[in-house]
Amino acid sequence: MFRRKIAGILALVLIFSMVLTPVAMADQGIPTLVDGPQDAPDAKLSHRLIVELDSPPLAVAYRDRVGAAGVNGRLNVNAPDAQTYIAQLQAEQAAFVADMGSVLQDASVSTFINELGVAEQASYQIVFNGLAVDPGSADREEAKQKLSRMPGVKAVYYDRAYETQLYTSTTLIGATTVWAEAGGAANAGTGVKV
């Protein structure tokens, strides 16, 4: 009889805990993202165009070939076969750039500043075969149409200018709550001895 009462009480406690847990959790707000993919259509259009060429990039061309695969099955971009294919893609891109001058007189391959502070052309061969193109003084829509009609061009895309939002995830992981409990960001590390 005593065991039956204890079992009944435990069953009631279990049921109440299952019912009350969602109620207790309901007061926590759901964090919202302000720079996620849903905001991409509002991103500012860049003046550049991204031109994708017909040949597949290295990662696609060599996904089933052993010559560029490493011991662990990953793509080895430094393998001789991979380097040969990258050189072939670069030659195709150079031919495209030479022909591009006849379609858009003052167009050029866009550049970026790398981590060493050196300007590099925005050309891609590993996971995407293409270039970022600055159409110069040409109308962007007109330039897109002209470039897409060139031989060897698979597609032309608009480039978008994005600004990084490095602190988006802090609300998702509840970091603001943790910081508040520790005295706020202003007191970070206070009293910690290493």
What are the defining features of this structure?
194 residues; two-stranded antiparallel sheet; 6 helices; alpha+beta; 5-stranded antiparallel β-sheet; 37% helix
Task: Summarize the structure in words.
The protein has a domain of 117 residues. Helix content is 37%, strand content 18%. It has 6 helices and 7 strands. Strands 1, 2, 5, 6 and 7 form a 5-stranded antiparallel sheet that branches. Strands 3-4 form a two-stranded antiparallel sheet. About 3% of the residues have low confidence.
Q: Helices and strands in order, then pairings?
A:
Blueprint: H1 2-25, E1 44-53, H2 58-61, H3 80-103, E2 108-109, E3 111-113, E4 119-121, E5 123-124, E6 130-134, H4 140-148, E7 153-161, H5 169-172, H6 175-181
Antiparallel strand pairs: 1-6, 1-7, 2-6, 3-4, 5-6
Biggest β-sheet description? 5 strands, antiparallel
End-to-end gap:
59 Å
Rg, rounded, reads: 28 Å
State the shape: elongated
Mean pLDDT: 81
Poorly predicted runs of 5 or more residues = 35-39
Continuous helix count: 6
Structural class, from helix and strand content? alpha+beta
Number of strands: 7
Helical percentage: 25-40%
N-to-C order of helices and strands: HEHHEEEEEHEHH
Strand composition percent: 15-25%
